[in-house]
TrEMBL record:
Listed Low complexity bias regions: 19-28, 97-106
Biased composition (Basic and acidic residues): 109-135
Species per Swiss-Prot/TrEMBL record: Perca fluviatilis
Region described as Disordered: spans on this chain: 1-28, 81-135
Name recorded for this polypeptide: DH domain-containing protein
Keyword hit for Cell cycle: no
Length: 760
């Protein structure tokens, strides 16, 4: 910018009068010349200062005005002084003319400065407007980039899920675990499509000021759905890379996959599935960058600026939560696995670090049990853990009952009673029975069993398998808690100790967040399966009722009214139940009847020999066949008689007795020997005394000499063998194993026919 310069002193023309007597003296001329030189020097200094300050714009104007004003004032003062000294007459007129000339020059300079200032202001306003236009253009470009990249992103994902996946499934054989690679990608496509549809519904172009507000509102309304879709996909992305690496290990399969990818998407230079499947991982991280770029080029006075700032912060928080969820899932996947290691593998895994860690945990556990060290208590987690174990017990119990139910149902179906000849040909009831049982076994019950397995047994088995993961996490959380307690009191932690603390906090937070959801879903599934169980039985009853009604008209009692029919049915059922009970009782009596085992002549001779030699109290009978397995052991047959010599062997073992088998001596197990009681012809007197004829009553504790002696009624006795071991539980009962003597008619004192009075 050029600074206007002040006119030189030589340009001033002062009309001075020249009287004859007013000639200048030499001294006055010198003073005038010297003053002019001083004025020139001051002008030169002013020009130098003005040249140095040309780079500054608005400050230069004020500086120039001050300098010009001061120079003009000094020049005016010096000119006035010069005129006062050199003129004696007419000085007043000269002074007035110089003032008019100065005021005229000053007004011209001020006008120029005002014009230049106005031009500078206008130029700065133009520059500001141009800057605003550039920012608006950049904002519109950023918005268009977000929208257009979202459309291209959805297009490529649809190519991968529709075209490429369908073509890969046509391979023979199709790649294994192909569906797991595209897991959750449909949810990602759905939420992105909904975001674009919300923008398209408003019918607002990116250049419209309302478009930014619409974009922010759409993103914020779908933020929860975006998080739900992307966090599951990103948590599963590790599995995608594992499956793809397994494909790469098979060269022929991988070459075929690459060929399918290139032929399905020729416009995209892709050579692997990860080219498409990594896009959601990259896209969720680009949302904060794109929104922050739009925010950077948006004025703070924009109506949607606050909403845009909120959307940018929400996108950042969304990424943080997704990363945290992915970290939780990695920890869960690491510790919930169940490894089946052999003893050799477990021994190979042992090292000094693992031994020290397990020893420290055991020591801490002992301190908790003995009360030496306090235990960290988390009431919220303890309540969740207790409820989880209750659910686990209920699920396992229900599964066991369902399996037992299905086993009994299979047993019922295996019993094909309609195939037996009941020797009742020609009667309607057996014919109807055969047809009904055939329909039940071939149609109704197999359908019921299939539905039971599909709707109840299979979900219960899946739920039982899902219990393994939380159970392992709870157990590992206890181990990490013991490690955390050891380092909790330390002020400074090493890198490894910090990792241990972070692992415990992560597992604890994960269980506190996920275990309530798991418990709620498991409980909901149990209630649903119990309701399904009831509905299945209701359908079974409806099918059976429909089947029986079709045969009801063929039965002989179908003409009876309902009350009479139910009366007849009740009596028939009770009569059949009585006959069945009688049959069962007769079978039981036959099975439990005591077996009389008379002695053979050789056994009688051995019994007499052993009794004479050892006494009757030492005689025992063998209950089961004894096969010797050690030195000096005897081989004895069931029912053989032996005499006890010693109730312990040479080493003091009381389980092996030394016996005499009628010439042979050796050891036999005492558990297979019972004391023998010989059945006598004349048994001991019966405790049941019969009073003599004519005596109606005999008083207790009285003695009547004239009374006739009492008659003893003897009953025949015989030897019986106990079919099962009997252990006494009440008085008047004793331990019975083997033989005993019994008298017919000696029953229970209260008349119970199931008990007999015996002598051991």
């Amino acid at each position: 910018m050029e600074v206007p310069r002040r006119p030189q002193p030589s340009s001033f023309t002062l009309p001075l009068p020249k009287p004859a007597s007013s000639a200048l003296s030499p001294l006055g001329a010198l003073e005038q010349i010297s003053k002019k030189d001083v004025m020139k020097e001051k002008f030169q200094e002013t020009e130098d200062e003005t040249a140095d300050t040309d780079e500054f714009e608005e400050e230069i104007f004020s500086t120039e005005e001050e300098l010009n004003a001061s120079v003009f004032v000094e020049a005016h003062a010096e000119t006035s002084e010069l005129l006062d000294t050199n003129t004696s007459t007419g000085g007043k007129n000269v002074k007035l003319s110089s003032q008019d000339s100065f005021s005229e020059d000053s007004s011209i300079s001020e006008e120029r400065l005002a014009e230049e200032a106005e031009e500078a202001k206008k130029k700065s306003e133009e520059e500001e407007a141009a800057a605003k236009d550039r920012e608006a253009q950049r904002q519109m470009l950023a918005i268009e980039e977000l929208v257009q990249s979202e459309r291209n992103y959805i297009r490529l994902l649809e190519i991968s899920t529709v075209t490429i996946k369908s073509n890969l499934q046509k391979l023979q054989p199709p790649p294994a675990n192909l569906d797991s690679m595209f897991l959750y990608i449909e949810d990602v496509i759905d939420v992105s499509s909904r975001l674009l549809s919300l923008l398209d519904q408003k019918q607002v172009q990116p250049g419209d000021p309302l478009f930014l507000k619409t974009l922010c509102d759409s993103f914020l309304s779908l933020s929860s759905d975006i998080e739900a879709a992307y966090k599951e996909y990103l948590a599963n992305y590790t599995n995608i890379t594992v499956v793809e690496n397994s494909y790469k290990q098979k060269e022929a399969l991988w070459n075929e996959i690459v060929r399918v990818i290139k032929s399905s998407a020729p416009e995209v230079n892709a050579t692997s599935l990860s080219f498409f499947l990594v896009m959601p991982v990259q896209r969720i991280a680009r949302y904060p960058l794109l929104l922050q770029t739009i925010q950077k080029h948006t004025e703070r006075t924009h109506p949607a600026y606050a909403l845009l700032e909120h959307a940018a912060h929400t996108s950042i928080a969304l990424n943080c939560r997704i990363n945290e969820y992915k970290r939780f899932r990695e920890v869960a996947d690491k510790y919930k696995k169940t490894e089946t290691l052999s003893i050799k593998d477990k021994i190979n895994r042992l090292n000094t670090h693992s031994i020290a860690k397990k020893t420290a945990r055991l020591s801490q556990q002992i301190k908790h049990e003995t009360g030496i060290a306090p235990k960290l208590v988390d009431e919220e987690f303890d309540a969740l853990e207790g409820f989880f174990y209750v659910l686990e017990h209920g699920i396992l119990e229900l599964l066991e009952n369902v399996e037992t139910y299905l086993h009994h149902l299979q047993g019922f179906l295996a019993c094909k009673t309609e195939e037996f000849d009941l020797d009742m040909d020609g009667e309607k009831a057996p014919i109807c029975y055969k047809e009904i049982t055939t329909a039940l076994r071939q149609w109704i019950l197999p359908t019921f069993e299939k539905r039971m397995r599909t709707l109840i047994h299979k979900p219960l088995c899946a739920l039982r398998d899902l219990l393994v993961g939380p159970r392992n996490l709870i157990r590992k959380r206890l181990d990490k808690l013991l490690d955390y307690e050891l380092i909790e009191a330390k002020s400074t932690l090493s890198y490894e100790e910090q990792a241990v603390a972070n692992t415990y906090r992560t597992m604890n937070t994960l269980l506190l967040n996920e275990l309530p959801r798991f418990n709620g879903l498991a409980l909901q599934m149990i209630w649903s399966m119990l309701g399904t169980f009831s509905c299945l039985h209701k359908d079974l009853a409806s099918d059976m009722e429909q089947l029986f009604q079709s045969f009801a008209q063929q039965l002989p009692h179908s003409s009876l009214n309902p009350s009479a029919f139910w009366k007849w049915a009740e009596s028939a059922v009770l009569e059949g139940a009585g006959r069945l009970e009688a049959l069962c009782q007769s079978v039981e009596d036959t099975l439990n009847a005591p077996a009389v085992q008379p002695l053979s002549p050789s056994s009688q001779r051995r019994l007499k020999q052993l009794t004479d030699k050892h006494g009757s109290g030492k005689i025992y009978q063998v209950m089961e066949t004894v096969v010797g397995s050690r030195d000096l052991d005897l081989n004895l047959a069931r029912g053989e008689l032996v005499a006890i010599i010693s109730e312990a062997d040479s080493r003091g073992d009381k389980r092996r007795w030394l016996v005499d088998a009628g010439g042979r001596r050796g050891y036999a197990p005492c558990a297979k020997l019972i004391r023998y009681h010989q059945a006598t012809e004349d048994p001991p007197p019966s405790p049941h005394l019969t009073p003599p004829d004519g005596v109606t009553e005999i008083r207790r504790h009285s003695y009547t000499p004239e009374s006739r002696p009492l008659t003893v009624m003897s009953r025949p006795c015989f030897q019986i063998m106990a079919a099962y071991d009997f252990t006494a539980r009440e008085t008047m009962k004793f331990l019975l194993r083997g033989a005993a003597s019994s008298c017919p008619g000696a029953q229970h004192k209260r008349g119970n026919p199931e008990w007999s009075l015996v002598e051991a």
